[in-house]
Amino acid sequence: NSNPTHTVNITNAATGGPAGTFDVNIVANTPFFTYNSLNPSLISNIFYFVQGQAVDVANGSYPGFSATALKASGGAGVVSYAAYPLTASAPAFASTGLTFDAATGAISGTPTTSTYNFTIYSFWDYAIVGRKADGSFTTYKIRLKIYRTAAEWGS
Q1: Looking at residue 81, what is its pLDDT?
Q2: What is the 8-class DSSP label of residue 55?
Q3: Within 13 Å of residue 69, how many CA atoms lie on the same side as its CB?
Q4: Which residues, at least 6 apart from 129, have a Cβ–Cβ distance to it below 8 Å?
Q5: Hey, which residues does 144 pair with through a beta bridge?
């Protein structure tokens, strides 16, 4: 059966109060979207940026990325995207200075901060969730590293 149904029984042993049973359908979907799928030489979920350097997705490229790499691809039927921090050190996406387009999943803007932490650069991890109208969704992890200067990027 490609859509297995699992029955979950809930008992209330602590109080003897209401209990019940419900069915849960678990469906494993093929992912709806990815990033960098048009450039297999890039690592598919890692993005490097420089603080203060604008990301102009609409007009071409950003160092190391084409405009197509900075937006979700293959998202047929996806009606909305959202970005959620996955690590304690990762701020809300909007706090980075970058913009996340909820309609297209595109990353743009100008980073206003860096991922530098005392002596090293760390990654900030985000879950990108693409939802379809029927409620199904795909979650895709991306990693951001934002350098303070372009010179540090190359070091």
Answers
A1: 93
A2: B
A3: 20
A4: 81, 82, 83, 84, 137, 138, 139, 140
A5: 47, 124
- The structure's pTM equals 0.74
DSSP string, 87-130: STTPPPGGGGTEEE-TTT--EEE---S--EETTEE--EEEEEEE
Would you mind telling me the total number of residues written for the chain in this entry?
Answer: 155
**Is 48 in a helix, a strand, or coil?**
strand
The tokens 């100008």 sit on which residue?
110
The predicted-structure confidence for 19-54, as pLDDT tens digits, reads as follows 666 666 666 667 778 876 545 555 568 888 889 888
Which helix (H) or strand (E) segment is 142 a member of? strand 137-147
Q: pLDDT of 65-94, one tens digit each?
A: 666 677 888 778 899 999 999 988 899 999
C-alpha dihedral sign at 54, 55, 58, 59: positive
Sheet containing 137-147, strands listed edge to edge, beginning at the edge strand earlier in sequence: 46-50, 137-147, 124-132, 78-85
Of 56, 59, 75, 47, residue with least CA distance to 146: 47
